[in-house]
Amino acid sequence: MATKPNILILGAGYGGMVTATKITKELGHNEANVTLVSKHDYHYQTTWLHEPAAGTMHHDRTRMKIDDVIDINKINFIQDEVVEIHREENKVSLKNSGQVEFDYLVTALGAVPETFGVEGVFDYSFNKWTVNGAREMKDHIEYMFAKYNNEPEPKDELLTFVVAGAGFTGIEFIGELSERVPELCKEYDIPKSKVKMYVIEAAPTALPGFDPELVEYAMNLLENRGVEFKINTPISEVKENGVILKDGEEIKSSTVVWATGVRGNPVIEKSGFENMRGRVKVDPDLRAPGHENIFIIGDCSLMINEETERPFPPTAQIAMQQAETVAANLKALIKEDKLKEFKPDIKGTVASLGGKEAIGVVGNKKLFGTSANFMKKMIDNRYLWILGGVGLTLKKGKNPF
Amino acid sequence: MATKPNILILGAGYGGMVTATKITKELGHNEANVTLVSKHDYHYQTTWLHEPAAGTMHHDRTRMKIDDVIDINKINFIQDEVVEIHREENKVSLKNSGQVEFDYLVTALGAVPETFGVEGVFDYSFNKWTVNGAREMKDHIEYMFAKYNNEPEPKDELLTFVVAGAGFTGIEFIGELSERVPELCKEYDIPKSKVKMYVIEAAPTALPGFDPELVEYAMNLLENRGVEFKINTPISEVKENGVILKDGEEIKSSTVVWATGVRGNPVIEKSGFENMRGRVKVDPDLRAPGHENIFIIGDCSLMINEETERPFPPTAQIAMQQAETVAANLKALIKEDKLKEFKPDIKGTVASLGGKEAIGVVGNKKLFGTSANFMKKMIDNRYLWILGGVGLTLKKGKNPF
């Protein structure tokens, strides 16, 4: 490494983008070559996608051109798909542009849906929490409403919407959809009573990990908008026209949205890292065990919360905090300093419920309704601030008032 | 008929609506009971539907609540579907509300698509030129764009659009769609070169009956927007994923729009009227042959143009003119006066081509581009004026400037 070391960042999600932004501040122009690889030429906010997916926000508000945010004078950008990490050879294979070498690697490839072995998920459900996937969900939902009045006989499954999973994503999505249903009914001349919405959850509670009082608030609110919950009810199969539950019940539906959680990117498995469901239990300094120059952050990293003895959930909040630590540790490696240990600092969690409704915990405080909604928007704006300062916040931010 | 006679109008399209409006002006409140039957509680402008179908206009602009236009103090309105006309018993069966008696009947039931015996039209093509049908086409088209980027391998048929028929409807529809494609490409992150548009016509020319110079103008313009014409090319079958042409060629497409023309409403055939493709060759005073009290107008009526020795095409223009004659003839029957003969007065024909483009003939004058577009909008506004005066024209009219 006589010349400038090559830092390679894989993925332009929360972890990759914040790493890229921070590293250019930590290191001078002559200290390293930094390259960012991403499938798209835009970054998008996964945590906002329930809104365009339900059609309550335009998808362009959830994304930004990468070269509008990162300084392309300081960072090389390659638009390509990562195929495999050759750990021992310090190389990464890309789908279209061959191999790229690295001295230091930051793996921030994000997650893919977890099916838990349920058949039919990839064939018959909407499960892509991406810009393309959200756009498809939205247009599919509208198309089902449009089809309904063109059928010779009423076909109720067209207006039956099933969300698999009452975790964060499932609840935030049904929050938006249930908020939009009255508007869709008006647009398509359909009585609201024809629309059925189900949220089906295998676990014994919706929003596991949330305070029960908040869970109750959310469920009551959603039930009042017409959502029916089936808790403690595993799905055994997704079919072309609905789902079959473990208890044998069949719900006919033309729209099954899969939101039961995620697993790490398959590239992790393919590249031979020791992993649990695509996630690597990283060292305290966020390096992959046995690799001095490979960091893994975000949804592909696994860290145990010592208080609960369970893994931290894969959240944007943690990915961004990890990115800051990684940027500092990259600098430390190059300067031959001591590496930092990563300590997550969970500031709070807020789930939006559509319209002006939300629930959340910030510090020890429980929040409901408009105050939770306010916090949610502030959290969303804070991220934009970290990433692109006041300019990006004004351009893409949410008005909390 | 010692008491007030019952006038029953079937259908709230151009013919039925104008009949209803005019009859209340021709006859005093005490001279007749007038009842209008329509499947929907709104009237819509069939001749505008190519716009919402392609997504260049909101469907609500093409429709109006019936009771916003007709005076419900003077006319009874029944929202129901006509099943059969019992010609000898002076009764009409409705789907939900039983039978209605009449002394005088005005049949203005409109048209249904003509398949010319091609298999698969009703199963696999979009063919309903109604508000519901247009809304479905629009949402389907958008959904195909949304799906494209979610396929693991490019699936070109998603972005291939086939219009069957280069008559008025087919040309006006592809005019709107081709105008909108650049916007759709932008919205869905798709290069414009991926989109294929075909117009397939069995006859030896597009827009049969139009001046060849106008036809050439229209075709050149549409070809410049990326439309490919296949003239003199009958379709032999519509399949789930495209069309098969008579010459054996197969075009794969997820969106086949059927616009090869129409036939009269099936109620005509079911009710035992002598007919040709659902159209009754009416007497010069617009009555059904052999029936003193049954008028048939609009798309279900057939009249021969003596100059060309061919039937007049089913147009809004003729339906409205027939409605005025029928209103006068109903008055004549009740007052025991002499009935008028109907004489069509073709003022001109303008076909829109999307954006500010159109072609047309008004009197002996050929019109192109913006002047034709201007005329088209004036024609559309004139209808609103006839139906609902200045108020409706201002509310629903098109700005020609």
Number of helices of chain A: 10
Radius of gyration of chain A: 22 Å
In round numbers, the mean pLDDT of chain A is 95
Q: Strand fraction band of chain A?
A: 25-35%
Helical fraction of chain A equals 25-40%
CATH topology of the largest domain in chain A: FAD/NAD(P)-binding domain
How does the major sheet of chain A shape up? 5 strands, parallel
What can you tell me about this protein's structure?
The structure is a homodimer of 401-residue chains. Chain A has 401 residues and is an alpha/beta fold. The first copy, chain A, has helices spanning 14-26, 50-54, 66-69, 121-124, 131-148, 168-187, 212-224, 266-270, 316-334, 369-396, and strands at residues 6-10, 33-38, 42-44, 63-65, 75-79, 82-86, 91-94, 98-101, 104-107, 111-113, 160-164, 196-200, 227-230, 235-239, 242-245, 250-252, 255-258, 262-264, 280-281, 294-296, 301-302, 304-305, 310-311, 348-354, 357-362, 365-368. The radius of gyration of chain A is 22 Å and the shape is globular. Chain A has 2 domains: 6-39 and 80-113 and 262-346, FAD/NAD(P)-binding domain (3-Layer(bba) Sandwich), CATH 3.50.50; 121-258, FAD/NAD(P)-binding domain (3-Layer(bba) Sandwich), CATH 3.50.50. The first copy, chain A, is built from 10 helices and 26 strands. The mean pLDDT of chain A is 95. At the A-B interface, helix 5 of A face helix 5 of B.
